[in-house]
C-alpha cells in the first residue's frame, strides 16, 4: 500500500516539474528589454538640393557647311578626328565652277575690247565736235557708248570675282580647333545649297570642358541661381560623381506631358575625357549649403518616450507645465530675423535619466537639422530605441518592406509619435 502511494507521489511531483518547465520555457512572458539609440551632435555641412535629369554636351559646337553645290570629291577627316583651325576637311568637285570662271574671263576680255573701241570712238567724236564737224547728238551718243562699255567691264569683273570666290569655296576648311563629332557626307555624295546650307561636319571646340543641359521643373526653378554647386552621375560611371557649377538659367520654357521645365546649364570639367557628348546625367543642384555647423539627425526631434521607455528609464522633463500637445514635432513658428525654429530633443545623462531639452534649429533637409543653439558636442541625444530579446540578442532583424507604426510594433522605435517633444 505504501509502495502505491509513493508511485502516485512521484507521478504528481514529476507532473508538477513538467508543468513548471513548460510554463517557464514556453508560457512565461519574457522580460522586455530595450536599448536606446543615441547620437552626439557633429560639426559638418548641411545642404538643401533639387534633382533633375539632363544631357552632357560640349560647351561650343560648330556646324561646318558649304555655300556652294556640288559633288564631294574628297574627305580628309573622319569621326573623332582632331583638327586645327584652317585645316582642309573636304573638297567639292570644282570642274563646273572652273568652267564658269573661264567663261566669265572670256566675257571680260570681250568687254575690255569693246571698251577700247568705244574709248577711241569717244576721243575721235570729241575732237570733231570741238571743230563743229559733228552734231551734239553724235557726240552724246559716243559718250554714252563709252560709259556703258566701262560699266560692262566693271560688271564682268564682279562676276569673275564671284566665280573665283565660289571656286575657292569648294575647299572646306575647319573654322576652329577641335574634334570632329559627326561627319554627314561621304565621297561622291551630292550636296545642294539652294535653300539652306547643308551641314557636312560637326566640330566640338574643346572636349575637356563640357556642359550639362538640365531640365528643371517649374516647382524647383525658383531656387536655382547662377553660381550654385552641382554634382551629377552618368550611367557609364555609376560610382563616380562629377562636379559642376550652374552657369545659366534659360528663360525659355519647354512643355512635355503638361510639365513645364526650364533648361539650366551646368559647366563641368572633363580633363579626364570620361564624359561623352549625349550622355544622360542624373543631376543634384545644391540650392543652399551651410558649412561648419552643428547638426543632428532629424529623427532626434521626432523621438518621445513611450510607456516602455518610461518603465525602464527615469524621465525628467522640465516642461511639464506646457499644455498637452504643445510643441508637437518641430515648431512651425519661424523667427523672421534669424530664420530659426524651436524644437525639443531628449538627452540621456550618465545616471540613465532622460531629460527634455529645447533647442533652436535652422536649415532642415528632412534628414539632418542644423542646431543653432541649445546643445553641446557631448550631449547624448536619443533618436529611438530597439527591443532586445534572447532570440534577437540585440540584433533583431526587420524587413524593409514591412510597414512600421510610429512608436508601435517592430524592434526599432523612435518613441510614441505625438505629444510634446
From TrEMBL:
GO MF annotation, one: efflux transmembrane transporter activity
Residue ranges, compositional bias (Gly residues): 406-421
Keyword Membrane carried by entry: yes
Cellular component, GO, one term: efflux pump complex
Domain (Multidrug resistance protein MdtA-like alpha-helical hairpin) ranges: 102-169
SUPFAM superfamilies: HlyD-like secretion proteins
Chain positions covered by the region annotation Disordered: 319-341, 389-421
Compartments, as annotated in UniProt: Cell envelope
Residue intervals of the Multidrug resistance protein MdtA-like barrel-sandwich hybrid domain: 61-198
Gene3D superfamilies: 2.40.30.170, 2.40.420.20, 2.40.50.100, Helix hairpin bin
Residue ranges of the TM segments: 7-26
Coiled coil feature spans: 139-166
Family recorded in the similarity comment: Belongs to the membrane fusion protein (MFP) (TC 8.A.1) family.
Protein name, as recorded: Secretion protein HylD
Amino acid at each position: 500500500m505504501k509502495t502505491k502511494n509513493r508511485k502516485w507521489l512521484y507521478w504528481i511531483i514529476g507532473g508538477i516539474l513538467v508543468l513548471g518547465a513548460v510554463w517557464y520555457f514556453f508560457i512565461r512572458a519574457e522580460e522586455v528589454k530595450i536599448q536606446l539609440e543615441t547620437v552626439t551632435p557633429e560639426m559638418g555641412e548641411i545642404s538643401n538640393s533639387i534633382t533633375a535629369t539632363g544631357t552632357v554636351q560640349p560647351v561650343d559646337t560648330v556646324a561646318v557647311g558649304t555655300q556652294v553645290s556640288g559633288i564631294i570629291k574628297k574627305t580628309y577627316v573622319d569621326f573623332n578626328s582632331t583638327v586645327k583651325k584652317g585645316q582642309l576637311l573636304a573638297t567639292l568637285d570644282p570642274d563646273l565652277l572652273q568652267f564658269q570662271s573661264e567663261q566669265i574671263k572670256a566675257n571680260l576680255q570681250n568687254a575690255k575690247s569693246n571698251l577700247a573701241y568705244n574709248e577711241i570712238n569717244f576721243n575721235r567724236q570729241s575732237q570733231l565736235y570741238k571743230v563743229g564737224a559733228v552734231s551734239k547728238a553724235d557726240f552724246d551718243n559716243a559718250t554714252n557708248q563709252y560709259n556703258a562699255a566701262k560699266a560692262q567691264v566693271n560688271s564682268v569683273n564682279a562676276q569673275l570675282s564671284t566665280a573665283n570666290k565660289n571656286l575657292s569655296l569648294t575647299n572646306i576648311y575647319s573654322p576652329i580647333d577641335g574634334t570632329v563629332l559627326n561627319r554627314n557626307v561621304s565621297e561622291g555624295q551630292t550636296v545642294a545649297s539652294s535653300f539652306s546650307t547643308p551641314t557636312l561636319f560637326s566640330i566640338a571646340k574643346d572636349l575637356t570642358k563640357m556642359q550639362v543641359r538640365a531640365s528643371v521643373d517649374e516647382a524647383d526653378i525658383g531656387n536655382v541661381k547662377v553660381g550654385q554647386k552641382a554634382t551629377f552621375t552618368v550611367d557609364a560611371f555609376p560610382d563616380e560623381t562629377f562636379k559642376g557649377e550652374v552657369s545659366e538659367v534659360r528663360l525659355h520654357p519647354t512643355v512635355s506631358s503638361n510639365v513645364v521645365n526650364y533648361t539650366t546649364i551646368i559647366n563641368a570639367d572633363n580633363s579626364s575625357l570620361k564624359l561623352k557628348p549625349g550622355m544622360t546625367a542624373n543631376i543634384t543642384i545644391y540650392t543652399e549649403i551651410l558649412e561648419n555647423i552643428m547638426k543632428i539627425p532629424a529623427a532626434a526631434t521626432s523621438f518621445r518616450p513611450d510607456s516602455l521607455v518610461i518603465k525602464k528609464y527615469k524621465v525628467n522633463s522640465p516642461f511639464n507645465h506646457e499644455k498637452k500637445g504643445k510643441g508637437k514635432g518641430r515648431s512651425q513658428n519661424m523667427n523672421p530675423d534669424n530664420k530659426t525654429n524651436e524644437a525639443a530633443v531628449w538627452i540621456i545623462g550618465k545616471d540613465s535619466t532622460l531629460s527634455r531639452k529645447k533647442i533652436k534649429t535652422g536649415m532642415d533637409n528632412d534628414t539632418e537639422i542644423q542646431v543653432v543653439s541649445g546643445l553641446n558636442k557631448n550631449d547624448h541625444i536619443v533618436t529611438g530605441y530597439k527591443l532586445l530579446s534572447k532570440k534577437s540578442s540585440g540584433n533583431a532583424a526587420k524587413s524593409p518592406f514591412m510597414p512600421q507604426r510610429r512608436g508601435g510594433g517592430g524592434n526599432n522605435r523612435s518613441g510614441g509619435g505625438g505629444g510634446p517633444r
